[in-house]
Write a structure and sequence with these properties.
heterodimer, A: 311 residues, alpha/beta, Rossmann fold, Alpha-Beta Plaits, 2 domains, 4-stranded antiparallel sheet, B: 300 residues, 14 strands
Chain lengths: 311, 300
Amino acid sequence: MIKIEVEHFTKDYGFGRGVFDISFQIHEGEVYGFLGPNGAGKSTTIRHLLGFSKPDKGHTRILGMETFTNYDKFMDKIGYLPGEIALPEGLTGYEFIEMIKELKRVKDDKYIKYLCDLFEVDPTGETKRMSLGMKRKLAIVAAFMNDPEILILDEPTSGLDLKMQQVFIDFIKEEKERGKTILLSSHIFSEVDATCDRIAIIKEGKIVAEFYATDLKHSKNKKYEVEFSSLDDLHVFRNLYEKSGKFTIINQEDNHLLININDENINYLIKALSHVHFRSFSQLKETLEDYFMKYYKEDRDFGGAIQWKKS
Amino acid sequence: MEKVIEIKDVTKDFGNGRGIFDIDLSIYKGEMLGFIGPNGAGKTTTIRTIMGFIKPDKGSITVKGMDAWKDSARIKQFVGYVPGEIGFPDYKSGTDFLKAIAEFKGVKDLSYANYLIEKLQLDPSANLKRMSKGMKQKTAIVASLLADNDIIILDEPTTGLDPLMRVSFLDIIKAEKAKGKTIFMSSHVYEELEKTCDRVALINNGRIVDVVKLDDIKNRKVTDFKIEFTNQDDYLNFKRLNYQIIRDQETYNQVTITIEKDRIKMLFNDLTNYQVKFIAEIKYTLERHFNELIRRGEVI
């Protein structure tokens, strides 16, 4: 069952900024990762999904409802953790929690207490004086206190220390076990890697790749680097076995070969290599980061320079 | 080799087991030393002691032969430094702040600063107070490097940077290293240190528990392979051979073996007798190195 849906969604802010014709669907119980650098359009998409703004073109739907016109109907079913936390001033942490509790009509304190304990929230003291990490943890409690079925998380762990990042990752996994549908926008590879079922890479407002996380982790396509004992060995290997078509050679440097092969042909490669002399055999693994970087070659620049004018 | 920074037997005890204890660490000229450990382990305290913000209870720290505490004002002039938590002085814009730093360090030519600004895609004209975390971090990086100092000390410099900016930053640091600079960088991202450092020190509970050369990690004589067989017979027969099995997953017909790299050829000769489903290398990494130290109980 589809819980979150974005269909041909465009929001053009001009100057090439914005989001252009993106589509994706998130099914019940799925964790969907939205991976991209700052300014790629992650938060824009999320803010439209929450109904804060109206798409120029296309649709953003939650639970089948168009979000801009129906936000009052689904707001109590989603927990939203914004990328930058701004808490109301002049309140203590307790008062803030009470305020949200009333807004969300949460009757039971049990889950709030569970969240406060889990994330080690200390709600005493004014929100204004809290550290960045404490503010974020307070926002976590506020977003999830009504145990919503859909979680929308925008850079959720920025400002949390390593230990709390791990607590948060474990929390996401538990929520997934409980059948929650989760959209996680992030540029921290390790947390996307650890939690997401599917991942979209977003670049300059467009989705440039979408894939299952397991396909990357347990890819049947492997790259190996073989160092032959001599150039002669390398040539013998190439002459005898390359034309089989069971593997492809990506690169040759001196007596090193970079080979791409599918697991189903690995026995052929093992046999072939057993007939020649080689010094080393190692695997080159493609991480989520490597995969991401393939789509991102630096090609934009902006920003200014300092002029040295004495005042 | 010349020791640019020398930390000898330094203790700073904050009580309740917090602080740093008996730290001995030298950073040699032209070297890049990484510094890793959990939050609260003492990374920032060690760095702040080098910068002369904290006076050690005992022991001595010298930077280019000068005492880190007594000569701290002078040392700050010739060391590029990115602090762990950034609190900028009250300047209107990033540009004003960077100009003040340039003046303090006696820099007349801002072309290197401008190069860094471009490389990090920073708009320094923005209001310092309103900058996002990432922009503040970039401003601090530019401030630390604009004087082209020979010694660079970086306390978690990549926090708050997105992945593209992290790559740009690491490129800058690699270029600094290539110029022969002495660099000390803390991080909680193993891969970052793996890509840049000559050596990495691990700190835990205020004590240095290991200092490892990355060459030793990369050029080990042994490696691990995970091999899955297509059928159980082959899996069982392979297990009878004389390989050192470090992990055995019967349900998948899978073994992980440790093998000297010069015996891989022999392994392949043996494997021709079996049906292999896949073979994957389990790399020995910095992270694994430290985790195994901790697991073996060599780290308190």
